Amino acid sequence: MSVARLRAFLAVARHGSFSAGARALGLAQPTLTTQIQALEKQHGVELFHRRGRGAQLTQVGLALLPVAQQLGALELDAFNLLHDAGKLNTGKLRIGAVGPFHVIEMVDAYHRLYPGVDMSIRVGNSAEVLADLTNYVTDIAVLAGARDEPGLSAEHYASHAVILFAPVSHPLARFDSVPLSALQDAPLLQREAGSTTRAALEAVLEQANVRPRPVMEVGSREALREAVARGLGLGTVSEAEFIPDARFRLIRIHGDPVRTETYLYCLKERRDSRLLSSFFDQALALRDAPHPR
């Protein structure tokens, strides 16, 4: 399998059509189509079902995809290792994250040290970010929570308390902090299923036998802020991600019993990559710096 044909296959698989795949690679569509057809003809297989303007992977294509993704990642590692004698004067590094807070400070610190490395940030929920990492769409993931999976390499980065925030009209808004029991029967706005913040809060509430009154599920931080501001209920968020607003008040929980932990992840097989290791090294130096970030 030639490198050009491999790239063509991955581009169409990732973007869902021959035209979108060609644009991603900066190729004319007929050129990309010829590469795919040559690959199929060489092995006597069909890799895509052509349906209108879209392209769907066949069973053979689905089986080939994870292997091609690994080969693509290895090609990128080889390029980054060899180019400029491995001095990291250039390269491409793709970061996945569930939110902007920590990843932006990491990328900023890294870019100052290695300005020639081309960086991108892809934001999604925890499941999406983890899937992107395992499917070789991204190189490094910044996620909340520890994940005991044998294929992943992890480094702890930060720990933050989960806090409440309430509309200024809410009775709890009079207090700087409240006991966990104050949430008994309180109207609570929940993040989506799979949210690390939600899971951490629910575990502590269950252990303390405290039962809030769920009002609704809200799928983004921005929507949660607006729902709280309009008085629909209490919100919860990591203190690192709280943005002050005159419409609501921050309220700590006595003893900070609910916490979120931020980790950096990469595939274990790629941990020794010079490019990935350089990002981990810089992030951990930032973590351990004596001055506040």
Question: What would your notes on this structure say?
Answer:
By secondary structure, this protein is α/β, with parallel strands linked by helices. It is 41% helix and 26% strand. Strands 3, 4, 5, 6, 7, 10, 11 and 12 form an 8-stranded mixed sheet that branches. It has a two-stranded antiparallel ribbon with strand order 1-2. Helix 1 packs across helix 3 (29-43), helix 1 (3-15) crosses helix 4 (59-82) and helix 2 (18-25) packs across helix 3. It is elongated, with a radius of gyration of 23 Å. The model has no long low-confidence stretch (mean pLDDT 89).
Features of this protein?
single chain; 293 residues; alpha/beta; two-stranded antiparallel ribbon; 41% helix
